[in-house]
Amino acid sequence: MSGNKVLSDLEIAHKATILPIEEIAERAGINTESLELYGPYKAKINPGKLQLTAGKRAGKVVLVSAMSPTPAGEGKSTTTVGLADSLARAGHKVMIALREPSLGPILGMKGGATGGGYSQVLPMDDINLHFTGDFHAVTSANNALMALVDNHIFQGNDLGIDPRRMTFKRVLDMNDRSLREIVIGLGGPAQGVPRQDGFDITVASEIMAVFCLATDLDDLRSRLGRITFGYTFDRAPVTVADLGVEGALTMLLKDAIKPNLVQTIAGTPALVHGGPFANIAHGCNSLIATTTAQQLADIVVTEAGFGADLGAEKYMDIKARIADVAPSAVVIVATIRALKMQGGVPKDRLTEPDVDALAAGVANLKRHVGNVGKFGITPVVAINKFGTDTAEELDWLLAWCAAEGVEAAVADVWGRGGGGDGGDELAAKVAAAVQAPSTFRHLYPLDLSIEDKIRTIAQEIYGADGVEFSVPARRRLADIEKNGWSDFPVCMAKTQYSFTDDASKLGAPKGFTVHVRELIPKTGAGFIVALTGAVMTMPGLPKEPAAMRMDVDAEGQPTGLF
Question: Distance (Å, rounded) from C-alpha 6 to C-alpha 3?
């Protein structure tokens, strides 16, 4: 703070002492030969050039998730950064692995996405804007594919691609509802073949998912080649390998695939890399970043997007099937104000003390706690403290956690982070959980049918009575079976605000049905996306976008960026 003025996250970031990235790399045990500098405070790591300590065991993973989020914001990334700083303060060798922010929500509703207060990754303005260009590379690869596809159709269509049965769209890293459905190729024969098309946001692209699930460059090329972008007139799937352009797409991603090294305010090394959304994609940073951090640190603190019903479930059932990155501990972030909102209090009254609303809303947290237990792990609850929380409310929630047999701690890492003592108690409980025995398991086996996998997630994680499939989704189930994709895991596309597919139903609803309107096989990523309710793969901007508050000063420094 400066006098009585509460500094913004950006002001705190600009006042922080940021170390040369070579010094952060040295702390992390990263040799200079593997470091590719992007200015003084950012670098990429070439994993193939790392010189690692012989015999070092892979670091243990701490997965940070949350209760169902609210528009008030819960501070999951802030807690992730603060927890890692606190673990480092306690003497553990720690690295952070986070997703890169998307420009769409930055300019839309959320503002910045690099933590907050004194628990941030730096340089926050660079990371939130164009960073090292990874998202631009993914966008370019995605759109190059679609340009090549449409050119193939225009040049004679030797593969027999049916323009009416395309399942891949162009992308843009922006919230732009006007591009959801478009028509291309208008203007006569020289302009291409007219067809209906549309845009997704970059973070929903299958190339982003492939980018984040690939284990190395060769695996990236193989996964890109397996992408199904459409079907022939005979309804046979057509892949990137059929088109013969997987090499070109890999070339466009060859530098982006290297993890990005930055630092926290406290100087903890952080890898920020990749960024699929968790409500429309699988919601985890790149697998390469996570495994690279495991090679360098004893504890890796990572996060999965939105609530544990989305990001954490997908981390367990998708990401942790590909590599040995199963978490040794899971943290569920909760806030007093979010629990009150889940209990029925409107956003403009969340600062008012209300233990009764807290007691009503805690059912949401209880379901998330129980869900994590279904993967064989008992979570630790992190109560992210806000200035409006009362001692009575905090004590009530701690007592509730104790009665439920769940370890919990109040974390004041927004105001007392940056290497301060605000997360010490949480760090101690998480360090103990990391060493405690656990038996990790997936929610479902891969030999279950796609329909049964979806039903298992809906009933076991969301608490639904059942699942209803639209006629198009039923047809796609038959295609999935026919094409041999039934052994893929499922990636549910669902609102983050509710366990149901209706964003308005808060708390822990019962007696509802999940409605699956479409299924999209992502054969390169290796999962089936199930679109539910009204969730969109191209979001729109709110009435008053965060961009309205943003500018640059006379020196070109951003202002209003959260």
Answer: 8
Arithmetic mean of pLDDT over the chain? 95
Residues 6+ apart with CB under 8 A from 344: 357, 360, 361, 506, 507
453 in catalytic set? no
Secondary structure class of 269 (helix, strand, coil): strand
58 touches 323 (CB < 8 A): no
Active site (annotated) includes residue 527: no
Q: Give how far Cα 389 sits from Cα of 3, 136, 355, 410, Å.
A: 22, 41, 11, 11
Q: Of residues 16, 88, 141, 278, which has the active-site annotation?
A: 278
Any residues with CB less than 8 A from the CB of 348 and at least 6 apart, and which?
Answer: none
pLDDT of residue 180 exceeding 50? yes
For the stretch 48-66, pLDDT in tens is: 999 988 778 899 999 999 9
Please give the Cα distance from 265 to 281 (Å, whole number).
30
End-to-end CA distance of the chain: 16
Write down the catalytic residue from 99, 221, 258, 522: 99
Rounded (10°) angle between helices 76-89 and 424-435: 80
Distance CA 246, CA 145 (A): 9
Active site residue 44: no
Catalytic residue (choose from 414, 488, 499, 562):
414
Does residue 1 have a pLDDT over 50? no
Nearest to 350 by CA among 323, 308, 399, 386: 386
